[in-house]
Every structure is written in C-alpha cells, then in structure tokens.
Amino acid sequence: MSDALSRHAARAVPRYTSYPTAPHFQPGFPADTWREWLARTPPEEPVSLYLHVPYCRQMCWYCGCNMKLAAREAPVAAYAETLRAEIALAADALPEGLAVSHLHWGGGTPTALSPEDLSRCMARIASRFDVRHGAELAIESDPRTLSAEMIGMIGALGFTRASFGVQEFDPKVQAAINRIQPPGMVRRAVDGLRAAGVAAINFDLIYGLPHQTVRTLLETIAIACDMRPDRIALFGYAHVPWMAKNQRMIEADSLPGPAERAEQAARAAEALVAAGYVPIGLDHFALPEDSLAVAAREGRLRRNFQGYTTDQAETLIGLGATAISRTRFGYAQNIAETNAWARAVRAGVLPVAKGRALTEEDRLRAHVIERIMCDGAVDLDEAAARFGAAPGWWDRAAIEDLAADGLLTLSGARLALTPAGRPLCRVVAAAFDAYLPRSEARHSVAV
Ligand code: SF4
After folding, report:
1. 107 lines ligand 1 (CB under 6 A)
2. What is the mean pLDDT of the chain?
3. Exposure pattern of 295-323 as b/e (b: 16+ CB <10 Å)?
C-alpha cells in the first residue's frame, strides 16, 4: 500500500449506515414530531420493521453494541412484553394495515427471548401489519445459546434468513475475545436452521482481533465457506475502549498493527472471492445467486443501519431500546436505557430520544454517500439535478486530492473508486459529509 493510501486507511471515519450519522441526531427530539412523521407515511408503500433486543447471555470482549447481560429470565420477558406494546403504539400512529416487505430482528441477541415471546411478538406484528408473502424475515442469533426449541420456532414462524457472529475459529483468538464456539457448534446451528426451513444463512467474520493472524483468518474462512453461508460480512475490529468498556479486557498489544490489519483484510477478501463469493460494497460477500449479489448487479443495493441490504422501503420503523427509524422526513432514535424506554412505552408515549429532520442538502449528500458506499461510483451532476442543487456543489479540490492519492477517478462530474480506493470508500464518502469537519464523535479507522 502506498504512503498516501496508508495515511487514508488510518483515518477515523464513520461507517455511513446513515447520513447524517447518529452522533448528529439531536437530543430531546419531540415525540409529537415523530408521531406526525409516522402519520404521513404513504399508506400504499411497504415499510420495513427493525426490532431490537439488547440482551445477550454472555459478553464478548470485542463487542461495541449497546447490550445488556441477561442473567435472569424475568427482565428479558418484561422487555418482550414492552416490545409488544411498542409495536401496537407505532401501529396506532401509522396508517392502518401497512404492508411489511422486510423485517429484521437484531441485537444484542434476539434469540435471548424465549421461543414463546418471539412468537407472541410476531403475532402482534401480524395483527397490526400486512406481512407480505415473500417478505424477508431475518433474525440474528448466537450459536452458543441457540436451543433446538428456538430453531423449531424460527422455522415455524417462517423466517427466511438467520445470521451468526462467527468472527474467528482459532481457539486462542476465541479465548481472547471471550467467545468460545468451535466449528461443530456453528455447524449444528446452521444445519438445524436449514432443516427447519430457513433458506438463507449469513455469517459475520472479523479481522484485526487479538492474536489473529492471516493464517488463523484464512483457516477460519476455509471452515466457514465449507458451511456455504449465503452471505459473509467481513468487518474490521474497531478498538474503541473509551466507548466500549468491555474492550478494556483486550490487551492493546495483542492487536495486529495497521499493516497486518490491511494484509488480513486483503487476503481474506481474496480467499472469499476464490471460494466463489461476490464482493459487495465495503465489507460484504455473497454467493452469486443471493439476493444481495443480484441487487448489487442490478444497481439496487441499499445501505441502512444493518449494513448492506436489498430493502427498498423508504420507511424503516425501529422498535426497541436504541432502535433507529428512518422516514423520508428524517431519523428518530429510541431511548437507549431500557427502563426509561419501557416507562415511556407503558405511558403510551412514543419512546423517541433523538432525531434529525432532513434538509434537501442532507438528502443530496445522503444519496451521494450511499451510492459511493454501494456502487463505488456516482455522477455528481446527476445527483445535483435530482435534488435541485446547482452543479459544482461539491468540493472539487478535496475530491481531486483523493484522485491524486489514487482512491478514485474523476471524469467530468463522474466519480468512480479505483480498486485500491474500494476498501477506502468510507474515506471518499467522508469528503461529502458536511457535518464531519465539526464533529466531536470518535470513529474507527477506515481499514
Ligand atoms: S458481540 Fe453480539 S453476542 Fe457478543 S456481546 Fe455483543 S451483541 Fe452480544
């Protein structure tokens, strides 16, 4: 990697799962404004639902999520009951009987719920929304705690996709991240879900973990590919112990340095491509027949809070503590603290804490950033025309600097990432982020 590319790879930039990014949502966002946005959802348009379960049975040291340890069953059951109440609260605020095209359970670990509670929540959704035949129903899970009963319930409820955090199979790395799950355990979960009728399986892998090497990562990829997941997401471990206190359990000197991280990312990508996976966007790989690969081929790839998606719905309703929603008018984020979230729901108040109304300029920048992250290319004049901006709205000098450093090519107003610039798409996207220069948020490094 050249010096210029290495310098960019070490830059701390957002992952752009939204624009503006979550640190720029405004606290004290009025629930009435959120209610008004929900009421203005076009009744004929399908929406997406995201349901967040912050509980996990064990804590992984690398985790950067907002999670809670589920030491007892009662708080988890109480959470599920409140979630059912929030589903009703949101449905009351929305036009009646909206179609749902995508539904995603994320966490935390959604399968920390009991099978009965998962079923009751899905029944509540079915009673208030029109979950379309062919809708994507996805759930994140944890092979260490996935019971046979839960596998049966996931199949019976018609889930179409399940995802696992596999991360790395090397025992020393697993010990250092406090996530012990041998290959046989993951295989049993995958085989069980497939036998129960779940058609698609996603794996998450991580590079840059403590004690991880190119060798351990390539061995992990060989084992993972043998199970033939439909999609693999390959993330770089973000060591941010000032934000995630559990990461203080990871010795900083056991982490691979920047050059080793870059080598791991590059060699892992090569191995996944050699195994028949199509690279998608920043960090995803999919079998050629998977819907994500098809969407990427057809220019329909989107990016939302879960990463890359085929979901085309303009409205995403997030339910549960910390969940983020997106509408054509702006973003809203639920209260993060579960007790405060539950109190608001029980009082019949939409439990929103933060939000951000979108300006026309936000929409233009959001579109450009999303296309860079998804397609690696965008026509800046076309984007300007689409959002009513003047041509030349962008900072040409900054973009030409990135071109000189080898990250992109610029032909007129058409920007395209180079092969070397593709892994650095976050850096290029950041050049269109009007909030970043004055941001105090700390982000992870680009590679
Ligand atoms: S990485 Fe996943 S399973 Fe582990 S603590 Fe975080 S949310 Fe829970």
Report:
1. yes
2. 95
3. bbeeeebebbbbbbbbbebebbbbbbbbb
Q: Render pLDDT for 358-416 as a digit per residue (tens, 0 to 9).
A: 999 999 999 999 999 999 999 999 999 999 999 989 999 999 999 999 999 999 999 99
- Whether 165 is in the pocket of ligand 1, judged by its Cβ within 6 Å, is yes
Residue 438 in this model has a pLDDT that exceeds 90? no
Q: Where are the domains of the chain?
A: 22-319, 359-439
Q: Give the distance (Å) from ligand 1 centre to CA of residue 109.
A: 7
Ligand 1 contact via 206 beta carbon (within 6 Å)? no
Domain 359-439 class?
mainly alpha
Q: Tell me which DSSP letter residue 229 carries.
A: -
Between the CA of 54 and the centroid of ligand 1 the distance, in Å, is 9
Q: How many CB atoms lie within 10 A of CB 422?
A: 17
Among the four given CATH numbers 3.80.30.20, 3.40.50.300, 3.20.20.300, 3.40.120.10, the one describing domain 22-319: 3.80.30.20
For the entire predicted model, the pTM comes to 0.94
Strand spans (E) along 310-392: 316-319, 324-326, 330-334, 352-357, 377-379
Question: From the CB of 60, is ligand 1 less than 6 Å away?
Answer: yes
**In ligand 1, which atom is closest to the CA atom of 165?**
2
60 Cα–ligand 1 center, Å: 6
